[in-house]
What does this fold into?
Amino acid sequence: MYRGGFTGRVLRIDLTNLTYQEEKLDPKIARQYMGGAGLGIKYLYDELEPGIDPLGPSNKLIFTLGPLTGTSSPCASRMSVTTKSPLSNTVGVALTGGKFPAELKRAGYDAVIVEGRAESPTYVYIHDGKVDFKSAAKLWGTNTFDCQDYIRAELHNPSIKVACIGPAGEKLVRYACIINERRAAGRKGVGAVMGSKNLKAIAVKGDKVRTTLADPEKFKEVQAVYVKHLKDSPYIASFGKTGTSTVLDATSAIGICSAKNYSETGAFQAAEFLGAEANAKFDLRKEHCEGCPVGCSQVRMVREGQYAGSLAEGPEFETLYSLGTTLGNTNLPSVIAGDRVCDELGLDSLSVGVTIGFAMEMFEKGVINLEDTGGMELKFGKHEVILPMLRMIAYREGFGDILAEGVKRVSEKYGKGSEKYAMHIKGLEFPAYDIRGAKAHGLGYATSYTGADHSRGYAFQEIFAIPVPYAVDRFAVKGKGKLTMWNQDVRTVTCDCAPMCAFILDMAVPDIALENTAGLVGGATGWDITPEEVYQIGERVINTARLFNIREGFTRADDTFPERIMTEPIPDGPSKGELISQSDLDLMLDEYYEARGWTKEGVPTKEKLKELDIV
Amino acid sequence: MYRGGFTGRVLRIDLTNLTYQEEKLDPKIARQYMGGAGLGIKYLYDELEPGIDPLGPSNKLIFTLGPLTGTSSPCASRMSVTTKSPLSNTVGVALTGGKFPAELKRAGYDAVIVEGRAESPTYVYIHDGKVDFKSAAKLWGTNTFDCQDYIRAELHNPSIKVACIGPAGEKLVRYACIINERRAAGRKGVGAVMGSKNLKAIAVKGDKVRTTLADPEKFKEVQAVYVKHLKDSPYIASFGKTGTSTVLDATSAIGICSAKNYSETGAFQAAEFLGAEANAKFDLRKEHCEGCPVGCSQVRMVREGQYAGSLAEGPEFETLYSLGTTLGNTNLPSVIAGDRVCDELGLDSLSVGVTIGFAMEMFEKGVINLEDTGGMELKFGKHEVILPMLRMIAYREGFGDILAEGVKRVSEKYGKGSEKYAMHIKGLEFPAYDIRGAKAHGLGYATSYTGADHSRGYAFQEIFAIPVPYAVDRFAVKGKGKLTMWNQDVRTVTCDCAPMCAFILDMAVPDIALENTAGLVGGATGWDITPEEVYQIGERVINTARLFNIREGFTRADDTFPERIMTEPIPDGPSKGELISQSDLDLMLDEYYEARGWTKEGVPTKEKLKELDIV
It folds into this structure.
């Protein structure tokens, strides 16, 4: 029985020597970084040598929970995976939900730090305060579902939770993900790092010990408010009903659901074919993360035609974009089929789709031809190429071996002006939101410590017109610096550190986010923590991540966009004519750095670091 | 707690009215038919109107366990599924292992009789002495693995065992199977009957109550002898190591592993590419039925090439034939991939492969052409067609809709002399053993109550040269009548009724089979039962099944072979020149009927029925 949110125990696994040790969680660091990505970033910053190869044995793969994980707080079976990203060389953070995170907490750990590299394929089994190192020599090559099944069979326990990689992670596809159940720690190539360590899977058996709450009454009081907000939110109601496909309708309506590798938006009538109504026809059932009252995840299945029998948890909005709109593809069954295959192979469905979309535009523009693609006609709208391409990429066969490197490296290889429409920032592929029509959201991408990342500072004010902390004009450039900072800090502490589900925060409780987090975390831990201190934790995490990236050589010049965003206006639809010019970006960056107390070059000042107590 | 092998309870489920009732197992019937297929056949004979449509609501689908199921007897987590077969209109029996059978026993039932037809897709959940009828409207279309996963998720219990159909069963493919875990109740189209009843799955939660043994000391004594025999058997050792792929080597060595739809045997060097050694390279791990000390089931996975990532429990020998040798296919990865797809789609891998092989020969002989096949080049050796064909058959698309009817109906459709090489008996497709080189085994096919069925009277004397009850010459015709009767009766009572694993019986304990079964069943039930009585139960079951088939219009004329067996000698290899002529068959049938105490026309005499106490 652990009291107060934390177990107080950190598990450090050395794959090189197949040893492990338990460490105490430093209470000061816990208070300063709370948990989740904050804790992961702190470890990464403290422990990683600058300049190391993300796919070498010196990189670390850090699984972190937070004080709310495994408590009765709704939407808190969350876990962060933190590492140096092989796509961007920046901090890489990927969060996942499902049942694994709460199970890991019950196994007795706040964090698992994986170091080194096993000599041969290995999986680890964490149980009863021990770590067993098991051969994964034969498991190597399994898809993620078979892998989970067979580890449970091998360990004779159907309740064991498993997080694992598929063939894509094994083959070091730079955007490989980690899958637990049908959930992904999707982005930044965390699965490639796991593969580089010869680590096929982490299996965990919780001993059913729950962390108790330090102040249950306070906790439950805040929780009741939280649940009420969830119930009252029309967005959450729609999420519970149709999942995030509803976001495709919302973004299409305002002309920021990008299509055909950002060369279209509104002209491509995506909502009709890929929106919530279209998706609902494929509904099978809802899936819940442990303890979640919403159940945003819709399991969908294709019932007829060439993709019949394909079943996926999703597709989420971003996959509807990455295997749908950005490929010029309105065939929803192919998106569902592709989503399933991505999960099985352990591919980040977002990055892989954007990379295929980029290849399609290169193909249509003549940068590459049939010889390059090995005979594959990579034209927008040709859904028949999706499944074969996913497979070729995961196994690094033929042209797939090239696309497995991600948009940035593909464009560097082929050149010929393709860099202009290589949709990535710092190496991370673009999400669906056409930021030319949502400027603060765009500034979030430019300044995120992970690259083009919609999850590190979501501008719901622009996308859903939610006026918290104030209403904004999504086309306006001025005034976005402070807003982006607020979005990043609040999101970071609430969703990445506590951690709680991002979907729910943004659209249900942004106005009470800080109070809510203070109340729940305070109730769990016994800390006397204010909303202001909560906010400052977010800020501290962002600053620490920034220091990491600066140490890796990143500068203001990297806080930028692909040329298309800055020179090509959105060609159609309700956001037609919008772009973010270089001067727009400069203005926003100046504002943002100033709000953050950073220099004009984007470097945290000594004063700021002192204020945040960052050494 | 149930005492003495049986729970004494039978569950009758009426899908038309969505009701159920519990009945007592009649102790007299239990003693006369023991359990498993014997019990199923007795119910079928007593309860089915003659002439009913196997795919209509009047057919019944009967799941039966035996007195040993769920006891500590090794190799006894077995279950029979009995129904009127939509392939043959005869009794259809399919046995399966895995963990479902023992779980059903623990749920408190010796038998589950499913009647009628649900108005809409339904699954049943058997738990705590109750039956819940659940909608399977949304589950309809799932593959068998997803279906099991999602039922466990929906019922919030990862330990629940599920037996279900895939798309093939839903689409009434006549040789659709029922899958539990990765195991199949494979043959006779039991999955099509389940589909015709709109029954997607049976989920069961055992309450962990075990049946206790009436005479544990006697039971354990016999069990020890049994286990010793298992340990001493070189065949069982090889099964535990390489699975049934070893049978491909054994049958190839004596020239009875048929190839290319029975047009070749020895010339096709299958063992090199598809035998035990070749298979072992793909080994992932062993799988055990509950309580089995052998673990014959090998999970295999393809690690590279176009089938990389394909993982199957198997392939078993019969699948190595049906997707391998009989298709002229030496590409083992394609067999493994096809095996997996068969399990997912719920196709009997044996019948579907033989049907494709038959289509290949028709294609090569010009009976059908590209127009018939929808452009598919169905040539022997072309492994690329296997996966697409399996899919087209399961979904009844294009030419697949025709092949979904099975060899008999396909040959009736196309005619043109194709009947000669339509390899089926009574509508059931041929297994791998080229019976022209194993005459008693062939007589077993001709007289089996299910059609061409290697599992109802396996002539191990011919195939493995095991001299029990006496040594035989596999090419000889004379003297096979009595032997076949013995094989059928002993196999039926031991493997189909007790029930125990067939693999193990035939090759480890045939000499002590009757004593062993008498001892184990006697020890479990408390019956004072002799080996002679055990034998008679097998005979009684065979006679009852015969009466069922006679009532359906079957006569001596149906106890026959396809023309190829009777007119074309084996063209090559160690059994070259062998065939079973019409006069050979007549001689064997005369002998067999006489041994059975049947008339020349193959009808059980009144005296025989009286002797067996069959009313």
Observations:
- The interface with chain A takes residues 138-143, 145-146, 150, 153-154, 158-159, 167, 283-285, 287, 299, 301-303, 308-309, 311, 344-345, 395 of chain B (CB under 8 Å).
- Residues 531-551 of chain B form the longest helix (21 residues).
- The two ends of chain B are 34 Å apart (CA to CA).
- Chain B has three domains: 2-212, 240-429, 435-611.
